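The instructor's notes for this session suggest beginning with a concrete chain rather than abstract definitions. Hand out the sequence below and ask the class to guess, before any prediction is shown, which regions might be ordered.
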Amino acid sequence: MTNRDHAQLRIATDLAVLTVREGSLQVLVITRGNKPFAGQPALPGGFVRTGEDVDAAAVRELGEETGLDGGQLHLEQFAVYGDPERDPRGRVVSVAYLAIMPDLPIPTAGSDASSAAWIPVDKVRGSLAFDHDRILDDAVENARRRLELTTLATRFCPAEFTIGDLRSVYEVVWGEPLDPRNFSRKVINTEGFVEPTDTKRVPATGRPAALYRAGPATTLNPPIMRTGSR
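After discussion, reveal the predicted structure:
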């Protein structure tokens, strides 16, 4: 029988900040400086203060622990985690955020983090404190699914990018190769996905490539599906 006493809760935020760096999907990870899990990698985050909005707490914690300006990122709540045993300090419910941005700077540790760094998702998975492995897995799957249905992939790209750059985002996040011609045709024929800048990137060797910017669309019709989703 469930105990009818009201739970005494603390509210926290955890942030899964993803970027594509050096050809891999990477996540922002801190090393905890305090107990519990001192010395163990974790996602940045922390407790919401009295009178503080949850979104504001996420921005503040990101800045305090990594030196990154969360106010410049697009932070989205994507899940809430409330397992009674998820935090040894007591009953803590966490609001999890997903942030996706290109070319993010090198973080600097602060607050209760002894270090902060970008680490490939595949290398850090399975080693995170609390239930952060689950949060990270859910965040990555959320990003993968949204690449199918929305224009989220352009947020991994700089202001101007080639179709090849955009395809690389899909390949890195999904972990599977895509046919260049088929992908290019789908992107160009999807209204509002990208817009031409009428300029080209001229590499040291090879042919110039047309540059694009993100278009006004937020959803993809038709969607671009992963092999396993078809």
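Then share the key points. The radius of gyration is 20 Å. Strands lie at 10-21, 24-32, 41-42, 45-47, 75-81, 92-100, 113-120, 194-201, 209-214.
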